[in-house]
Design brief:
285 residues, alpha+beta, seven-stranded antiparallel beta sheet, seven-stranded mixed beta sheet, 6 helices, globular
């Protein structure tokens, strides 16, 4: 008896499964006119996801217990001043960012990495993702509405010293990257369209799960040697550029529509709902 041509049909289904749209890829750094910003998570560059509401901010997935640092790259031939605030606190002084505050100064074309809360000209306490109640801001009784925010304000110098980039040297072009969670999820089906609601539409979901969901903050981590020097810098009165990063644990990013939700396993209900054929199983009696 001739064999029925089942194999090609199965191959076609496999081809359709592999052709599902890829999950969204993150960016390695922000798009900026003066200073490009990226995040390094346990020594690896983290994926930054543009906000789905078009606000211009970026989201990053926080992982409890992981250390992170903020990488800054001056894209200009001028010195610039950078005010870095984490959870609403100045990363140098630890004070609430009510005004301009203390800042890092980047030389023309300089790249640097801020590892943590500065405690002296020689040391910092490393940025670490912890639950919000264990964050440095909460433990210092300075918790505020900017918990979960990393903000960068870039100031130009009033009398700028300009240095041209070496001839032929161009800033590297950003290449999309993906987090480990994205790599694991590339075989999943596309997210439900409802998961891409705006933050306002997702608010009831967040309120409903508020008691069960944990939220991250930035903790007071281990000491790290990170020497700096004091310099003179006369900034303009207002920042030329602002960059905002928001960090949350993955379930919250899914609820906000930043990342797609996981697809449930293909069980009998899944087959019934889609009218897809299964395979014959041996009778039990």
């Amino acid at each position: 008896m001739d064999r029925l041509p089942i194999a090609p049909f199965l191959m076609t289904l496999a081809g359709l499964a592999s052709a599902t749209p890829a999950l969204p890829q993150g960016l390695p750094e922000t798009a900026a006119a003066l200073v490009a910003v990226s995040l390094e998570l346990d020594g690896r560059k983290a994926a930054l996801y543009p906000a789905p509401d078009g606000s211009g901010r970026y989201y990053v997935e926080a992982r409890k217990g992981s250390r992170y640092s903020v990488a800054l790259a001056n894209r200009t031939g001028e010195r610039v001043g950078v005010v870095l605030t984490v959870d609403g606190l100045n990363a140098i002084s630890g004070e609430r960012a009510a005004s301009r505050g203390r800042m890092y100064v980047l030389d023309p074309w300089q790249r640097t990495t801020v590892q943590g809360w500065r405690t002296s000209l020689q040391e910092v306490r490393q940025f670490t993702f912890v639950d919000e109640r264990a964050s440095y801001a909460a433990r210092s009784e300075k918790a505020n509405e900017k918990m979960g925010w990393i903000e960068i304000a870039v100031y130009r110098e009033r009398r700028a010293f300009v240095r041209w980039a070496p001839q032929g040297e161009q800033p590297p072009r950003p290449v999309p990257i993906e987090s480990e969670g994205d790599q694991a999820g590339r075989r999943a089906a596309p997210a439900n369209e409802a998961a891409r609601d705006s933050a306002e539409e997702a608010a009831p979901k967040l309120r409903g799960n508020a008691q069960a969901r944990a939220y991250p903050g930035t903790g007071w981590g281990d000491r790290a040697h990170d020497p700096v020097v004091l310099v003179s810098f006369d900034p303009e009165s207002e920042p030329f550029e602002r960059v905002s990063l928001r960090y949350e644990y993955r379930p919250a990013l899914v609820a906000l529509g930043v990342l797609p939700s996981r697809v449930p396993p293909r069980d009998r209900l899944w087959e019934r709902d889609r009218a897809e054929p299964g395979f014959s199983q041996p009778p039990r009696w």
